[in-house]
């Protein structure tokens, strides 16, 4: 009876998704056509190598076509776009999605909810991307908010998506700030609804995952109050497959993962083109996509399931259990990198041990003539109409580059937070002028006022300056 009720609840959840459409997710009779349905989140751009970019490049279909030419089997791919991971899980429970990508908390909930059903049980087979410090999640406030640090939100209303990675980051951050769980009012909203509530004044703050923080700040509709990097816990996204489907059609999962590797390589080799492709498919500004997905971006794109990421998932399980979001989950049964190992070949063991971002800003600073090779300081300018970005050795030299640009139209400039390394828009950063840092490195960017203040407290003589003043001081 309990199984029947759980199935019923899952199917009821599909009613609200009717507008999205769905595929069969099963093999057609006769074995001549194999259908596969992929659930993805187009605006969660930390999963583009398993979703938006992968779909736009047609790499999965190409891999399946190669198999079809050898075997005579036809493959039909259906792509379904969702705003969050929870509805993908609902569809997988109903057998309507075979492969899905989502963030770390939804991944764990997915594994827990599906494990009771043999035909719906899922496995985590790959990662799409990650940030080792957790900077994919941020807390935002309106630009005019008086709040300067997270503690200023005591007694305020905060929107987040319950059981999401942004929710988990927020709870951890509140605890670190010494705020009891009941000291703020948490409101559950899908990301787009929460963003609207922040703009209308319906909530005082918003805790969300990529790309919402970058998008709202880029539009001038919010500023960052708290950078998830301050929690210093990895945030990651990954790929789950229905185990029963994969056992019946292992070649499909292997082809999908091989295509993800292809898309990741393309993203690393053609970052501007990839950003523009994703922007065209999603309606997101390419400058925002490039903030996350470009070299030294907020997302490290790497499909391998690294030990440090598995450990992060292990730490997340108790929190999700405390929320009642999952009963239990055995990661040894849930995590299965055997298909990915086969797709990678001998390179897997080397790749899985590395946490260095394969996509890095490189080159020579055109003004200082210094090599640009340190991710902690490397900065970048994107001028309109140019097919490549211009590197800068550090944020001070970037500002000098912008001053010396001769009136070129700037699309965006990117700098790393001086403390956390979080990549951010130069014109949206909080700048500190520290004369003691030396003439070529005295202008330091931070994502938050709180981060800038911590630096000032430790460096007498340093002061906050606005962006225009920082440009002049360069």
From TrEMBL:
It comes from the Bacteria. Pfam families: NMT1. Residues 47-270 form the Solute-binding protein family 3/N-terminal domain. PANTHER family: ABC TRANSPORTER SUBSTRATE-BINDING PROTEIN, ALIPHATIC SULFONATES-BINDING PROTEIN-RELATED. Belongs to the bacterial solute-binding protein SsuA/TauA family. This is ABC transporter substrate-binding protein. It comes from Carbonactinospora thermoautotrophica. The lineage of its organism: Bacteria, Bacillati, Actinomycetota, Actinomycetes, Kitasatosporales.
């Amino acid at each position: 009876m309990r199984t029947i009720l759980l199935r019923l609840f899952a199917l009821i959840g599909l009613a609200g998704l009717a507008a999205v459409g769905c595929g069969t997710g099963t093999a057609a009779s006769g074995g001549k056509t194999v259908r596969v349905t992929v659930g993805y989140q187009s605006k969660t751009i930390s999963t583009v190598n398993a979703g938006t970019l992968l779909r736009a490049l047609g790499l999965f279909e190409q891999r399946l076509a190669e198999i079809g030419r050898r075997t005579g089997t036809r493959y039909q791919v259906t792509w379904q776009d969702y705003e969050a991971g929870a509805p993908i899980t609902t569809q997988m429970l109903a057998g309507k999605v075979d492969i899905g990508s989502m963030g770390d908390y939804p991944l764990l909930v997915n594994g827990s909810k599906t494990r009771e059903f043999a035909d719906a049980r899922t496995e985590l087979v790959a990662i799409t991307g990650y940030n080792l410090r957790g900077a994919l999640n941020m807390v935002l406030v309106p630009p005019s908010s008086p709040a300067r640090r997270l503690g200023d939100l005591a007694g305020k209303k905060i929107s987040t998506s319950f059981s999401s990675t942004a929710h988990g980051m927020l709870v951890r951050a509140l605890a670190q700030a010494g705020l009891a769980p009941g000291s703020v009012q948490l409101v559950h909203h899908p990301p787009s609804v929460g963003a609207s509530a922040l703009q209308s004044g319906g909530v005082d703050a918003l805790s969300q995952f990529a790309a919402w923080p970058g998008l709202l700040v880029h539009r001038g509709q919010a500023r960052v109050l708290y950078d998830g990097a301050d929690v210093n816990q990895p945030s990651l996204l990954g790929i789950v497959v229905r185990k029963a489907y994969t056992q019946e059609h292992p070649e499909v999962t292997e082809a999908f993962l091989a295509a993800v590797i292809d898309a990741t390589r393309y993203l690393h080799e053609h970052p501007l083109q990839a950003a523009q492709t994703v922007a065209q498919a999603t309606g997101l500004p390419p400058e925002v996509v490039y903030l996350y997905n470009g070299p030294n971006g907020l997302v490290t794109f790497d499909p391998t399931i690294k030990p440090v990421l598995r450990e992060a998932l292990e730490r997340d399980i108790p929190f999700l259990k405390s929320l009642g979001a999952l009963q239990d989950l055995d990661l040894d049964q849930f995590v299965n990198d055997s298909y990915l190992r086969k797709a990678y070949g001998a390179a897997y063991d080397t790749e899985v041990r590395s946490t260095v971002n394969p996509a890095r800003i490189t080159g020579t600073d055109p003004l200082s003539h210094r090599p640009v090779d340190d991710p902690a300081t490397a900065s970048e300018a994107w001028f309109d109409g140019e097919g490549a970005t211009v590197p800068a050795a550090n944020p001070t030299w970037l500002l000098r580059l912008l001053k010396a640009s001769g009136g070129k139209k700037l699309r965006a400039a990117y700098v790393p937070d001086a403390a956390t390394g979080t990549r951010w828009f130069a014109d949206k950063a909080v700048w500190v002028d520290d004369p003691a840092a030396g003439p070529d490195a005295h202008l330091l960017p931070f994502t938050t006022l709180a981060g800038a203040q911590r630096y000032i407290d430790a460096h007498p003589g340093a002061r906050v300056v606005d962006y225009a003043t920082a440009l002049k001081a360069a």
